[in-house]
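To the wet lab folks,

You asked to see what we're planning to order before we commit. Fair enough. Below is the target structure as tokens, and below that is the sequence we designed to fit it. If anything looks off to you, flag it before the synthesis order goes out.
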């Protein structure tokens, strides 16, 4: 019998209980043993909930119960999740988590702690919601030298940008809808300012190189400055705006960035709509491979947590290999990242813009008083210098 405790009975935690109960027979067949959610830890009580009797408020009851072999940490945030995870792993109890904040901050240390105690720290649900991406990185893609990862890794922002693009919705209404659907973090700043996605690309980048990429070192721009006029221009160009996380290897090391990009119809990420996520990986011998699915939401995320539970249950007393040490990776300078830019300037500055930039195309989306254009491929340092020369820009969006 595998006894599980769920920490946090919120959106994902209640989803974990639901997935285990709904698919119990399948899961038990795959584990080769029966499975039971023995405890649900939460500060609150849940009168009338079918699992009300399993709700407890004292964590020590869980880690002092020798029957518990796996804990699902679905609390989110750094504390008390960090302390609870350390306590469980120190006792040889495996932890399966959806908490990207904790994984991005303390992943290598917690993996090491698990390995020292012959148990596992698993975090499939921390990136891409229900998309299996951590497991492919650790097993299916091990023959590859991965040189780039690019993805739509936040369901909330992709949902907002889809609503703005397809329905002309304004930002606030689309955000409210995403929150109502359970996609957004408690504080949506983490989604819309790109912090959530920067943690996810930090985790993926770390797994690519096997060392520690600190999300705080990643150049990050969110979507709060994207306007209805930007969307009009994008549509005019036959493109859409996506918040992308990119990570690649170059001759000087590794580079990572989070920013809104204009994506053309020909790119596979163009068709990733609503709260779906996709991760596009390039390996030196495999070439391109892409992973697509629900990147947020209760049951898809919970399904990924429970898949980790199954893996842990199959490896009681054994460690699953995850190569990620705490050697810090120095990322290369984001100012050197080269791309074309879409730029909007005041019509009064057209002459200056034409003198400052190498313009490859102009765009007329019917917005009065503006001149809009596409630049040659240039780095950010060159872009900023040219922007000053032309008297400042209304907005600029990178293009892939
Ligand atoms: N707030 C996150 C998102 C949840 O919207 O993608 C899944 O990590």
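Sequence we intend to order:
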């Amino acid at each position: 019998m595998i006894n599980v405790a769920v920490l946090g009975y919120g959106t994902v935690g209640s989803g974990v209980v639901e997935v285990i109960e709904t698919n119990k027979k399948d899961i038990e067949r795959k584990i080769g043993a029966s499975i039971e959610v023995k405890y649900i830890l939460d500060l609150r009580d849940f009168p009338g909930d079918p699992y009300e009797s399993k709700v407890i408020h004292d964590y020590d009851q869980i880690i002092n119960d020798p029957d518990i072999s796996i804990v699902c940490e679905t609390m989110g945030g750094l504390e008390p999740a960090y302390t609870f995870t350390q306590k469980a792993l120190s006792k040889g109890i495996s932890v399966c988590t959806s908490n990207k904040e904790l994984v991005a901050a303390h992943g290598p240390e917690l993996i090491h702690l698990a390995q020292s105690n012959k148990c596992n720290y698993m975090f499939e649900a921390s990136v891409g919601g229900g998309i299996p991406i951590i497991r492919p990185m650790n097993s299916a893609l091990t023959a590859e030298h991965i040189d780039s990862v690019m993805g739509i890794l936040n369901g909330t922002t992709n949902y907002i940008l889809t609503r703005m693009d397809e329905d002309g919705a304004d930002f606030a209404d689309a955000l409210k809808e995403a929150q109502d659907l359970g996609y957004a973090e408690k504080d949506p700043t983490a989604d819309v300012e790109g912090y959530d996605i920067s943690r996810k690309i930090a985790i993926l980048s770390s797994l690519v190189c096997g060392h520690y990429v600190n999300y705080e070192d990643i150049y990050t721009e969110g979507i709060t400055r994207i306007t209805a006029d930007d969307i009009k221009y994008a549509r005019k160009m036959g493109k859409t705006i996506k918040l992308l996380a990119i990570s690649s290897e170059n001759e000087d090391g590794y580079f990572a960035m989070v920013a809104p990009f204009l994506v053309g119809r020909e790119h596979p990420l163009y068709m990733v709509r609503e709260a779906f996520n996709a991760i596009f990986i390039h390996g030196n011998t495999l070439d391109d491979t892409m992973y697509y699915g629900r990147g947020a939401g209760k049951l898809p995320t919970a399904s990924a947590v429970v898949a980790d539970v199954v893996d842990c249950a199959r490896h009681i007393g054994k460690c699953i290999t995850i190569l990620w040490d705490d050697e810090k990776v120095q990322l290369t300078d984001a100012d050197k990242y080269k791309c074309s830019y879409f730029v909007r300037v005041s019509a009064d500055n057209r002459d200056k813009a034409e003198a400052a930039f190498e313009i490859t195309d102009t765009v007329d989306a019917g917005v009065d008083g503006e001149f809009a254009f596409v630049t040659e491929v240039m780095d950010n340092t060159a872009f900023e210098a040219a922007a000053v020369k032309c008297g400042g820009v209304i907005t600029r969006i990178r293009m892939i």
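Structural context that might help your review: The pocket of L-homoserine is lined by residues 129, 154-156, 183-185, 191, 196, 295-296 (CB under 6 Å). The chain has a mean pLDDT of 96.

Thanks,
Computational group
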